[in-house]
What does this fold into?
Amino acid sequence: MSHQQQYYETVETSTRTTYDRFLEFERLLKMYPPTSSSSPRAAPRLNPTPLGLCAFALTTFVLSMYNAGIGIPVTASHGVVMGLALFYGGLIQLIAGLLEFRIGNNFGALAFCSYGGFWLGLSSLNIYLFNFLNSIDIVTMNKAFGVFFLAWTIFTAAMLVSSLRTNVALIALFFCLTLTFILLTACKFQQNDYNLQRAAGVFGIITAVIAWYAAFASLLKKGENSYFSLPVYDLTPQIPMVNIERPTSGNIRSQKI
It folds into this structure.
């Protein structure tokens, strides 16, 4: 064997050894995930749920205080409430619903966009520039509001059924909200029965408190941004995890086709 052939065989052996070492090094690197210092920090997950619930809760609370006659005469005009309903309960809640669409939460998007639209619609009825109610007599107007609240009663009852596999806090929220709309509907069909209006105000206040609780339960995460968490008693069915064992390289066989 010539010296030239021995040289090429030595180079080939050295190259093969180097390549094998590189493959082994690459395999070892894949076994260890990158550390947090070397990897970029993950962006915090978007969570519009507290914003939407707080916008709904605060607007519902103020209107329900008017309806219940707590600190304010039960016959007082709702003009102050409508400014809040237009921007916080309406616009802000609608934005929260659109953000829920972005993260793929269809239930939250439907709820926030719908009730944001409710507050926007209700407030627009009290804007004299639109002239929606100026030409209607009081009896017809009360019946029209009765139909308005009846439609929202049906929708809220459907949301209650849809929430039965979410958590206890949301179920309680939609249950009390359904009762609130039922009482408001009856109040308007009875030509502003003040006893029914007060009852609707009381249930509305309870609804607002539950909504605030659910909002901060979604916001506060123990160990992340809070020293404690608020339980909501999740009822979501747990999907069992199935472990699939991957075959090792030794069990992989090649087959000609």
Remarks:
- DSSP finds seven helices and no strands in the chain.
- The chain has a mean pLDDT of 86.
- The CA atoms of residues 83 and 242 lie 53 Å apart.
- The radius of gyration is 31 Å.
